[in-house]
From TrEMBL:
Keywords: Cell membrane, Membrane, Transmembrane, Transmembrane helix, Transport
Protein name, as recorded: Carbon starvation protein CstA
Membrane topology type: Multi-pass membrane protein
Transmembrane region(s): 6-27, 62-80, 86-107, 127-154, 160-179, 191-210, 222-242, 254-271, 291-311, 331-351, 417-438, 459-481, 487-512, 524-543, 555-577
One Pfam family in the UniProt entry: CstA
Domain CstA N-terminal: 2-535
Primary localization: membrane
Record gene name: cstA
Native organism: Niallia hominis
Membership in a protein family: Belongs to the peptide transporter carbon starvation (CstA) (TC 2.A.114) family.
Origin: domain of life: Bacteria
Signal peptide annotation: none
Length: 598
């Protein structure tokens, strides 16, 4: 198997799905009508509710949903071979993810752009609304820990990478201040991008200096620094750090993956991995569990992701100019993210299996696999750092992309620069997600605790903002500090897919109420049923075999408690929804009074 075949076949499948199934969902199931005003027009305030061109909205939505998930998940799942991940990415994105994103966006817009917990409260009642809100708080906390875990091993003992990533913080803040003062977007963009590139190329100069020694950090130190950074990012004004970083990182993401696709077509690398590896039945060094349910847990973003519900019921529903834009923004952006996930899978599986497992396993575990490395010593020498044992997925993607690019003769001596650029590219996206996610967690905490202490409800109250931001950072920072990638990523996967299940439950409820044919709710029920079974079995497996198993590497009682609480919340929500579905199904939509003819 070669990479170009996979790319072309996948792109064709996704385009056909968008044209046929996307049209069916938006025209037949959701019955989108552009004659009706969207919330952006109806509540236009020039601040949050602003009618926006569909392609601009697409760019915002895609940048928000496509963080580290579609990059890391497929790489970790490569443990099972290239075929399980490829199949789940394509089927999951078309049948599950694109439907989920479109119906959540539609459901939020029907309720004037309200959050998913508010939509759940109105559609399913106060119990389901409370459980959804609580689940969202748990999930966003675990998401921050899972994404941050990816950064740790990429920057561990890597002063060049730490410098390149760290310098993006003052660059983003400088761009934010400069844009606020001048309003010149093109100039700000140009300066910001040039400075980012300088950060990568200056990196080698600091490695053997005092600054390089300061920036040679272990994972525990990085696990403390990241939550501290997130606290300030969540508390600072949006325009100062979050918005300019999000904007600059969008250009990087699009540019890098266009370059990767071009590189794949030029080189057409062979897929070194088999279709299935020996670890499909479990016992793998990256993910301990079997291919099912863990393929659908490990690859969350890229196939279907509950994290998208935060965006689809947050900023995006307040921006859409027309109802029909849901097809491009909701359905289409998910399919593009699927393609990003497929490219990440190709970058991982183009490596020799021995090299892949050497990177993604500790040296002690790798010794037990009976494998030998192929190109890794040479790659380590060219890149300038020891690549073995750098788990988490970020390093594997950087190595895979560097391996592909340096096959082009012009770039053959630039492996170290490609590697550090991709590390910065990944880390910037992860930090963007951490910025936005910690801020979202802060809002959720203020909303929940504000029921007991009213001033906390005010998001503009400085002491409340500081307290909620600090609490959010402590919560996910503890998970980050005490966990490892296999246990934390599995916890993230279970919680994320539980959130997607909740989104599909709400989507099915909305479709049952308003679709011309009630059987259309199967568009949500089928992926929801699969995810619900998958999530509960995966959660049970992890609690039994890892979190409450003292002999397991990922032994963690807190993770077990969090998993059990989340699964219980999901069960309460689906019981409440099922009762609501039966009541709705048994209630005639139109009461027609039969005239008395006698």
């Amino acid at each position: 198997m070669n990479a170009v075949t996979i790319v072309i076949a996948s792109a064709c499948i996704l385009m056909i799905a968008y044209r046929l199934y996307g049209t069916f969902m938006t025209v037949k199931v959701l019955k989108l009508n552009d004659k009706e005003k969207t919330p952006a027009h109806e509540l236009n305030d020039g601040k949050d509710y602003v009618p926006t061109n569909k392609w601009v909205t697409f760019g915002h939505h895609f940048a928000a949903i496509a963080a580290a998930g579609p990059l890391v998940g497929p790489i970790l799942a490569a443990q099972f071979g290239y075929l399980p991940g490829l199949i789940w990415l394509l089927i999951g994105a078309v049948i599950g993810g694109a439907v989920h994103d479109a119906v959540v966006l539609f459901a939020s817009m029907r309720k004037k752009g309200k959050s998913l917990s508010e939509v759940a409260k109105e559609e399913l009642g106060p119990v389901a609304g409370f459980c959804t809100g609580l689940a969202m708080l748990f999930i966003i906390t675990i998401t921050m820990a899972g994404l941050s875990m990816v950064v740790l091993h990429a920057l561990e003992r890597n002063p060049w990478g730490t410098f390149s990533v760290g310098i993006t913080i003052p660059i983003a803040m400088g761009v934010g201040i400069f844009y606020k003062k001048t309003g010149n977007l093109k100039l700000c963009t140009t300066i910001g991008f040039i400075l980012l590139m300088i950060g990568v190329f200056v990196g080698p100069m600091i490695q053997e200096t005092v600054v390089g020694d300061w920036l040679t950090l272990d994972t525990k130190t990085l696990a403390i620094i990241l939550p501290i950074y997130a606290f300030f990012a969540a508390a600072l004004p949006v325009w100062l750090l979050l918005a300019p970083r999000d904007y600059l990182s969008s250009f990087m993401k699009i540019g890098v993956f266009i370059a990767l696709i071009i590189g794949v077509f030029i080189i057409n690398p062979a897929i070194e991995f088999p279709a299935f590896t020996e670890f499909v039945h479990g016992g793998g060094p990256v993910i301990a569990g079997p291919v099912w349910p863990f393929i659908s847990i490990t690859i969350a973003c890229g196939a279907i992701s509950g994290f998208h519900a935060f965006v689809g019921s947050g900023t995006t529903p307040k921006m859409l100019d027309k109802w029909s834009d849901i097809k491009v923004v909701g359905f289409g952006a998910m399919l593009v993210e699927c393609l990003v996930g497929i490219m990440a899978l190709i970058a991982a599986t183009a490596l020799h299996p021995g090299d892949y497992f050497a990177i993604n396993s500790t040296p002690e575990v790798f010794q037990t696999l009976g494998m030998s490395v192929s190109n890794l010593p040479e790659l380590s020498r060219e890149i300038g750092i020891d690549l073995e044992g750098r788990t988490g997925g970020a390093v594997t993607l950087a190595v895979g992309m560097s391996y592909i690019f340096t096959e082009i003769s012009w770039f053959s001596h630039l492996a170290s620069y490609f590697f550090q650029f991709v590390i910065m590219f990944e880390a910037v996206f992860i930090l963007t997600a951490i910025d936005a996610g910690t801020r979202t967690a802060r809002y959720l905490i203020q909303d929940f605790l504000g029921e007991f202490y009213k001033p906390l409800k005010r998001v503009d109250w400085l002491p409340g903002s500081i307290f909620a931001s600090a609490l959010a950072c402590v919560m996910w920072g503890y998970l980050l500090f005490s966990g490892d990638i296999s246990s934390v990523w599995a916890l993230f996967g279970v919680s994320n897919q539980l959130m997607a299940t909740i989104g599909l439950i709400i989507g099915a409820t909305v479709i049952l109420k308003m679709a011309d044919k009630r059987r259309y709710m199967l568009t949500c029920l089928i992926p929801m049923a699969y995810l619900f079974v998958t999530v509960n079995y995966a959660g049970y497996w992890m609690v039994k075999n890892v979190y409450l198993n003292p002999e397991a590497v990922g032994y963690n009682v807190l993770n077990a408690v969090l998993s059990i609480i989340m699964l219980i919340l999901g069960i309460i929500i689906i019981i409440t929804a099922t009762k609501k579905w039966f009541d709705t199904w048994n209630t005639p939509r139109v009461q027609v009074e039969t005239p008395n003819l006698h």
